[in-house]
Amino acid sequence: MQSGPDALREHGLNVTPQRLAVLAAVDEYPHATADHVLESVRASIGSISRQSVYDSLTTLSEAGILRRVQPAGSATRYETRAGDNHHHVVCRSCGELADVDCAVGDTPCLTASNDQGFAIDEAEVVYWGHCSNCREQITTSHS
């Protein structure tokens, strides 16, 4: 996938400093929350409103340049890895989120046991557990 101005133009979007800064922030910090993107953008270009960052995140997500990820009970996160139908694993303790590729083949999860008449084009799988750091803390605290 192209990045920066080329990605915006390819999707018919105006190239603005705000959108470029938001895109760069999410690219640098995969799975960033909107608040983290706001902090990063402000550090990069200076003053920008919270609403401008939210608007940019929405526009870039709707265009398919960013992927919006919202595991149950977690803050919405954004990533530049869009369009490949990968999944995520979330730590129940600290909330760390990481990418997980499909287990077999390109998109095996798109073959539902009963599609109920739907033309399925995306599946969202979220694995839950404990990251290695939290697992160590749990093991240490129970010893």
Structure description:
It is a single chain. This protein is α+β, with helices and mostly antiparallel strands. The protein folds into 2 domains: 4-69, Winged helix-like DNA-binding domain superfamily/Winged helix DNA-binding domain (Arc Repressor Mutant, subunit A); 84-141, Dna Ligase, domain 1. It contains 5 helices and 6 strands. Helix 3 (34-45) crosses helix 4 (50-62). The longest helix is centred in the middle third of the chain and has 13 residues, at 50-62.
How is the secondary structure organized here?
Blueprint: H1 4-10, H2 17-28, E1 32-33, H3 34-45, H4 50-62, E2 67-69, E3 77-79, E4 87-91, E5 97-100, E6 126-129, H5 132-141
Parallel strand pairs: 4-6
Antiparallel strand pairs: 1-3, 2-3, 4-5
Helix pairs in contact: 2-3, 2-4, 3-4
Order of helices and strands: HHEHHEEEEEH
* Helix run count: 5
Number of separate strands: 6
| Overall domain count | 2
Low-pLDDT stretches are none
Broad structural category: alpha+beta
Arithmetic mean of pLDDT:
88
Distance between the termini: 47 Å
How is the main sheet built?
3 strands, antiparallel
Radius of gyration: 18 Å
Give the helix proportion (percent range). 25-40%
Sequence of strands across the biggest β-sheet: 1-3-2
CATH class of the largest domain: Mainly Alpha
Architecture (CATH level 2) name of the largest domain: Orthogonal Bundle
